[in-house]
Model the fold of this input.
Amino acid sequence: MTAVLFDPHENDETGIAELASESVVIFDAHGTIRYWNPAAERLFGWPALTVHGTELTELSPSPADEEHASSRLVQEGWWQGRIGRRARGGGIVFVDVRRHLRYDAAGEHRDTVEFARAAAAVGIPEAAGEPMTDRMMAASWEIDVSPASEILARITARAGIADQSELDNLHCRLVEASRIVEVNERSARLVGGNRGRALMAGQSVAAFWPLGSRGLLGQLIVAALGNEDGGQCRRQFASDGILRDPQVSVWRAGDERPGHLFIAVNGAADDDRSYLFLRASEARYRKLIDYMPIALWQVDASHMGKIYAGLRADGIVDFERYLEAHPDLVDQAAATVPVTDVNRRAIELVGGTGMPDLIRPVGYLFDASPDSLRRVMIGRFTGKKNYSELMKLRTLDGRMLDVRFSVTYPEPRLELDTTIFSLEDVTDRLRMETQLRQLQADFSHAARVSMLGELASSIAHEVNQPLAAIVTNAETSLRWLARDQPDIDKVEQLTARIAASARRADDIVQRVRGMAVKQAPDPVELALNEIVQESLLFVRHEVEMRAVRVTTSCARGLPSVIGDRIQLQQVIVNMLINAVQAVESCDEPRREIAIATATDDRGDLVCTIGDRGPGIAADHLDRLFEGFFTTKAAGMGIGLALCRSIVAAHGGDVSASNRPGGGAEFRIVLPRAESFAAAAGIAGAASGSFAARASRSA
Done:
């Protein structure tokens, strides 16, 4: 018997038949049943999915009567009379039927429609006008127990089963290993949630069967398989919150489908709310999820949860190291963890044509970012509630997207292991951020060039000093060489001084060139104290020329920072120049700048630059770092705004305040290398941002 299912919602005709109180059965020219409405289920007891594809004569106690009716039907095009039909309970139901032939466009016999009512003459009450309520329909399942063959063999042979507890556990495992082949509409409505019939197929029976009665179902399955005459095995189950006192029947599908069983569950919904209310609520929920702007994937990772539990039982604690030694487990997850549901936005995001394109193992989501799946698995193993990162996604139509990937793990206490993936396309946002960073880099370069212009006299003075020393030492060397007896030792000393002065001049030129050259940020591990000392070299002449006293207090043993050397120098030099200009108008004894480095309570690095100038006006404090805000007559108002953006790109913060004894103080806070790399490593993984490059360098 081959089950060819007839979709009762394919057209209005059969959609109306679903609501009819009269039995409606459709069978093709060969007598194979193609449609069986809910009223037929009530009248004969057979769930629709158990009779789809069945020959009508198999349900007749008198095949000869069926042949006679068929002969008259072909002659007249219709037939009316009384027939008997085998009921699921084992008896015979007598009904009054009307049958009509239907033809296709070519005039060929397409199928036959049968309308039937219980025959009142034999004592069965009429069903005319009686509404077809939900409780009259069985929640029907077809399942395949072949995947549980080893478990069945153990149960049957009672091999190695120590006690009843272990036997009960095997019955539950039998249900877990069995797979759904098909369910009817009522089953999907009761336990399928928003998945629907098609998406339940192929999944574990246990994923939809109440936990408390799985053992009992396993017992019924074993009994039905052992029933030699193929009859039904029935049992009354306790109310489970879904149906009130349900009666469960299990029987074999037939010799032509070995390992397949039918399950019929009869009972009224165990809920005080009306069926229409429940359907409306479900529809609202489904619509809400389906039209959300975030792409959502529902994933069943229950079998991976059992693998994780086994590893924990074996003493595995460092799961990350375990995956490094067993990468095949990641491949197994990619190939076996199924997607069970998606919403519209998910289909649009990956360029699919419909839900079936996405209902398959999750591996396709991680083709471009296999390490992301590994981190998802680590998050689940370590008990996280959720996890998020940026990653690359290759779509079904070949595009490469940057997405914000988030996963919500199931609660450990819940048996139904449902994991939710959400993906947000951030490709355009990251592209704009990249363009913004480029603009900021250009802006920063322009500001550095402008700053070098302000320091032109200082730079010239710095270069002139070694050049003057070179000239002096060279001329002296020539005089020593011009003597009748040249003093070679003295010339060697002078030549060494010339080389040292040349190197010093080269250092100055390279330092200035580093500030002037336009280049991408190069984040590396740096010592903050070195940055401070190098920055002081830029302003040394300005400080000396204006008789400013600079005191430094650099803490020892500071942790390193991750950053771009030139950009951090730019920040400190800019603030030193501001401090020099602030104290320039003060009396000489007050021309003082103090620069210090230390760590704060969190272990982050702090650099403070304080002066004894006039301080900052109270109404300017909140606006000091705004773009184009300045208190200088010839200022552009870009220096401090740029300093803040640079420090922020390094994961830090900059602030300004007035010192109690007068003057201003600027405070720069930068995260230590370890914490910055940890925070930036995953967050920037897909963007190619400063943070991502910083994490790679760390």
In short: The chain is about 40% helix and 20% strand. The chain has four domains: 12-132, 136-271, 291-425, 438-683. Residues 463 and 507 are 9 Å apart (CA to CA). Residues 1-10, 122-135, 681-689, 691-698 have pLDDT under 50 and may be disordered.
